[in-house]
Write a structure and sequence with these properties.
The chain is α+β, with helices and mostly antiparallel strands and 206 residues long. It is built from eight helices and seven strands, in the order αααββββαβαβαβαα. A five-stranded mixed sheet has the order 5-2-3-6-7, with helices on both faces.
């Protein structure tokens, strides 16, 4: 049985305050009440405001465009060897429990006339991390954005992450790590290219 503190109601504690008219801070204040807290006590007075600001920051990816970010840093270069940006730290929120998952991204591509500014690869990861996510979809979204931007010979993305929804609740497996990968173009078609990428990733972990 669900905790009665979180029993669903059709209105906020103040019956004159319709849900659609409530501010985000009002909603967070009501959530604190339903958890059994007193939002008027000293330590919680500004908590609804802080939650609102934190969630706005942690989901800012909805307001950002991967296309616009990459478009500002595309360069014509006569280079057709593998480009890897590895160990990109990211922090995201799982869409199932709105709990954090975090880890590192490894992104590689083989250009075909155009390359991406290196810092933009890291920013691209953040665009998709700063949304409610599942790791599998985020992995593919990063790869697809690079394909759309520069149409390279191939793209490979690996994400390695720890999920607090597994560590703090449910099975409570603190040492678990989830890895996901997307291989496109020559990384999917050529075992040699794929193995070179995986070898370089493993070497970086030593």
């Amino acid at each position: 049985m669900e905790d009665s503190r979180l029993e669903t109601h059709t209105a906020l504690a103040d019956p004159t305050l319709e849900l659609h008219a409530a501010s985000t801070e009002d909603i967070h204040r009501e959530l604190l009440r339903r958890l059994g807290e007193d939002p008027a006590r000293d330590g919680l007075l500004k908590t609804p405001e802080r939650i609102t600001k934190a969630m706005t920051y942690l989901t800012q990816g909805y307001e950002q465009s991967a296309t616009e970010i990459l478009r500002g840093a595309l360069f014509d270069v006569d280079y057709d060897e593998m480009v890897i940006v590895r160990n990109i730290e990211f922090y995201s929120l799982c869409e199932h429990h709105v709990l954090p998952f975090f880890g590192k991204a490894h992104v590689a591509y083989i250009p075909k006339g155009k390359v991406i500014g290196l810092s933009k690869v890291a920013r691209l990861v953040d665009v998709y991390a700063r949304r409610l996510q599942v790791q599998e979809r985020m992995t593919r979204e990063i790869a697809d954005a690079i394909v759309d931007a520069i149409n390279p010979q191939g793209v490979a993305v690996i994400l390695e992450a720890q999920h607090l929804c597994m560590m703090m609740r449910g099975v409570e497996k603190q040492g678990s790590m989830t890895s996901t990968s997307t291989m496109l173009g020559c990384f999917r078609e050529s075992a040699q290219t794929r193995n070179e990428f995986l070898s370089l990733i493993r070497r970086s972990a030593v």
